[in-house]
Design a protein that fits this description.
11 strands, 0% helix, seven-stranded mixed beta sheet, four-stranded antiparallel beta sheet, single chain
């Protein structure tokens, strides 16, 4: 049974850093595209970064260089390292997983970050607040 659980969110000052974690329980017979999305108040859910099982990553242009997605297969955990956080970074951050090549799947990882509507599995989210 697929389960995603985020942690690591919190309140940070502008310019601060935070590392989010997503503990996963996935079907061992299925390959998944994994990614991070966020949704701020009054905004649509947007992609941040995604990673293919082979390690290939993709980032939204505005995130590249500040955010880094990675995974630890041994711990079944996905990470998002966030540096130089800005006030506009405040949002609920979600871990996402979608079976590769199944259903409404889109190419992983490049198109995945553009397609929150195809995601089959979501975590409940972890909040990131920017305080000054």
């Amino acid at each position: 049974w697929v389960r995603l659980m985020e942690s690591g969110g919190g309140a940070v000052q502008p310019g601060g850093s935070l590392r989010l974690s997503c503990e996963t329980s996935l079907d061992p017979t299925t390959a998944y595209c994994m990614g991070w999305f966020r949704q701020a108040f009054g905004k649509v859910r947007e992609g941040i970064a995604a990673i293919h099982p082979n390690g290939t990553t993709s980032y939204v242009d505005t995130m590249k260089g500040r955010f880094t997605i990675s995974k630890d297969n041994g711990k079944n955990t996905l990470y998002l390292q966030m540096n130089n956080l800005k006030p506009e970074s405040a949002a609920q951050y979600y871990c996402a997983a979608d079976p590769i090549g199944k259903g409404d799947y889109v190419p992983c990882p490049a198109m995945f970050i553009r397609s929150p509507h195809v995601v089959d599995y979501w975590g409940k989210g972890t909040p990131v607040t920017i305080s000054s």
